[in-house]
Amino acid sequence: QGQLVESGGGLVQPGGSLTLSCAASGIRFRLSAVAWYRQAPGKEREWVASISSDGSHTSYADSLKGRFTISRERAKYTVFLQMNSLKPEDTAVYYCNSKRLTYEFWGQGTQVTVSA
């Protein structure tokens, strides 16, 4: 059974940084496009960033460009989300998603809280 596990969330002060990790097992992760989504309290889940299966293409939500960076380490079946200059409005549960053909997986999410 395929599984994605996010980690790296936590409490950070405004202006700080965090790096989230998404580790895969049981799926053809290296052949899968991967995306990060987030869901803030009382809001719908929104797309944050995506990376292609070979890591050559990345895309970001317009509002996050320049602060967030998605990358992947294919040998370790892991995708990262580097988040800089964090703002209180970045507070959310962050989810990892992988897609390949008709196969789609979601992680359980990791909480990021940006607060002084």
Protein model, in words:
0% of the residues lie in helices and 53% in strands. It has no helices and eleven strands. The protein is globular, with a radius of gyration of 13 Å. The N and C termini lie far apart (40 Å). A hairpin with a 4-residue loop joins strand 7 and strand 8 (78-83). It has 116 residues and is mainly β.
What descriptive keywords fit this protein?
116 residues, 0% helix, 11 strands, mainly beta, 53% strand
| Estimated helix fraction | under 10%
Shape: globular
- Sheet with most strands: 7 strands, mixed
Radius of gyration: 13 Å
Gap between N and C termini: 40 Å
Proportion in β-strands: over 45%
How would you state the average pLDDT, rounded? 95
Our count of helices gives 0
* Count of strand segments: 11
* Backbone structural class: mainly beta
Low-confidence stretches: none
State the order of secondary-structure elements, H for helix, E for strand: EEEEEEEEEEE
